[in-house]
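ugh ok fine here u go
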Amino acid sequence: MIDFEIMNQFSSLESKLRRIVMAFELKKNRLAEVERENEELRKNLAEKDKEVSELNKKLNEYIKNFKKSEKFTKIVSNNLKSTGNTAELKEKLDEYILEIEKCINQLSN
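structure:
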């Protein structure tokens, strides 16, 4: 009779151990999935950070260029007041264009 109880307890422990091992394997697999997902999310975050950095650089360039264009607009509007007719205005604009082209050529070389 004692052997029967021992066998019953052994069988019960064996069953519990199998369930624990199965639960462990499930948790281990889930952990591996979560780690892969985490790594993928980290890569995506790094890419997005890089994109944000590039966009910030572009934004700063646009702001800088916009400020330059504001200055150019002020120069032109001030000179418009001083020029009386369209012929003089065209001549002034041609001078500005030539000056800008010279600057571009110097920057290119």
